[in-house]
Amino acid sequence: MISKKIGIVDCNNFYVSCERVFNPVSTGRPTVVLSNNDGCVIARSQEAKDLGIKMGEPFFQKKEFMDEHRFCVYSSNYNLYGDMSDRVMSVIREHVSSLEIYSIDESFIDVSHVEEKDMMDFLHIIREDVKKRIGIPVSIGVGPNKTLAKLTSHIAKQNSNYKGVCSFWDLEEVRNMYYGIDVGEVWGIGRKWKKKLNSIGVDSVGQFVNSTDGWIRKNMSILGLRTKYELLGHYCNPIVTTPKTKKNVASARSFGQDVDDFSQIAEAMYVYIQNGLRKIKDDSLEAKKATIFVSGNKHKGQTHSYYKSVSFQKATCDTEEIWAQVYPELRKLFKKDKSYKKCGIVFSELTPSNQHQITLFQSSLQMVSPPSNTEKKWEMKQEFITKKYTTKWEDIPECFV
DNA sequence: TCTGGGGTCCTAGGACCC
DNA sequence: TCTGGGGTCCTAGGACCC
Predict the structure, then answer these.
(1) Helix (H) or strand (E) holding A319
(2) Is pLDDT of A43 > 70?
(3) Is the CB of A289 under 7 A from strand B?
(4) How far is the CA of A96 from the C1' of C10 (A)?
(5) Which nucleotide across the nucleic acid strands is nearest to A279, CA versus C1'?
(6) Which of A57, A270, A378, A390 is found 20 to 30 A from A24 (Cα to Cα)?
(7) Positions of chain C reached by protein Cβ under 7 A
(8) pTM
């Protein structure tokens, strides 16, 4: 069997790095990017991490601290990050034959053709090219499979001597290193499984790979077992270069404040439907089913959450057609004596838009007019949003020489 | 005042059929 | 009417990822 060489290219502190390309003032200063509604921290610069800011920490709890330490704070700007991501990926693609975009800031690459002795040089070239042309720093880890590529890139980040790139084949005594790495660092082992493993005395990667197949299979399903075998060097999880067709498309948001007025919810839902449909149309898809939901503010102990699925007669991506069927259900879900913090829609049973099923009995739909504009209490808070530097003409930075 | 959003996969259990 | 086993399909829930 020819062994594979798989790499993971990972943008460092991606959202922060994107902001810094256009706001160099934040370079060197502790910097964070906030989730929608400026709710919690979802990206941190190294300086912010060093000051103890945690991933997912509520912003309002740290605001004062951040003011004191002269933080740069940004609302998330997904137009910018999405476009910067596309640019990073296309530079990487120039260097490899096979690339899987795994998330907005990560891609797996197949580098099986590169000799082990040449690997580090090869990785440095990619890293420098992305930095030079796009301005985004990346880390790269390479190993015999995805799980080990991820673990190797973790090792690279822990130790600055690696200068952001690390090859499994340059590491000595890998299996011994496993005893020094927390099992929770492994890709595929999350909080719950880590806790379960700890409870039987398994704390390190080394101990995990020595756990029995039976226990892992029973407690962590086939996925946990696959992770163990990848840590042992097997190749179980192939690179997927053609993007998988989506199975679900969701559009949901928390409101800027609690809302108890049906017209507000209806307007928000209408906007989210349009939002979701835009994503569906971009992929040339249509939906046969949609699930709408409304829910209370869980941080105020409100646990109410109501949802309802609607199956359409035929797959569609027509806003009015969907609204006509969703609106009456939304009306029924809404309870007058409750307040709500979030609503949304998940489209499922997606099919390519050119495959039209002929419907024999098309019942006529009672169209429902779109909601009229309200004062938009539901709109999300974005106090620190930057411009669409790369995707909107008016926002393109000017350069004075 | 203020606590994100969008995905995938696997499994157990219920419904239903023969 | 009662009784049993096995197969398939669907869904909700739970785990994971970023």
Answers:
(1) helix A319-333
(2) yes
(3) no
(4) 42
(5) B6
(6) A57
(7) 12, 14-18
(8) 0.94
